[in-house]
Known about the structure:
Blueprint: E1 13-18, H1 19-23, H2 27-34, H3 38-56, E2 59-64, E3 81-85, H4 92-106, E4 111-115, H5 119-124, E5 130-132, H6 134-142, H7 160-172
Parallel strand pairs: 1-2, 1-4, 2-3, 4-5
Helix pairs in contact: 2-3
Amino acid sequence: MRKSGWPRGPGRIEWIVDGHNVIFAHPLLETLQRGGERREARRRLEAMLERLIARTRNRILVVYDGNRIERDPDARRGRSLRTQYSDPPEEADDRILRVTARLLRREPEVVAAVVTNDRALVERLPERVVWTTPRAVFTRLRRRTRSGEPGRERPPGDFSDIEAYFLSLDRNRPRRPTG
Length: 179
């Protein structure tokens, strides 16, 4: 079995996320998905991934399993975050394999990083593809980035707008001499 790792390298990193696999790796997202709030589960996952984009400045493609009834119900085509749905009978794993192979052929300097817990998919990935677990991504997202402070548990959800507001207040406040 290949070891998971965090992608590194001098080049650009292209993230390919196994959407439903990652949703089922996060308790809140899984609860939403199983409770029939699929669109909300996808929206929250994508909001979390946007925070990863803000930290890494890379692009992310989220691939979801499609179905015959609902094709690309809320697909996104942004510059940094895109979503795709597989076309049945194709599964998300097949699409991920095709996307990574095409990416490595077209842009050999790019680091392709797949986020999944699906061991069958991991075994089929090209050797040059870096495999990262959803847990590793969630852990990175929970870490605090100010002055090397250690990571702290954060409640689930996207609070980036509130966090940015309070951080800007702190940066703009004049410092008083201590002592």
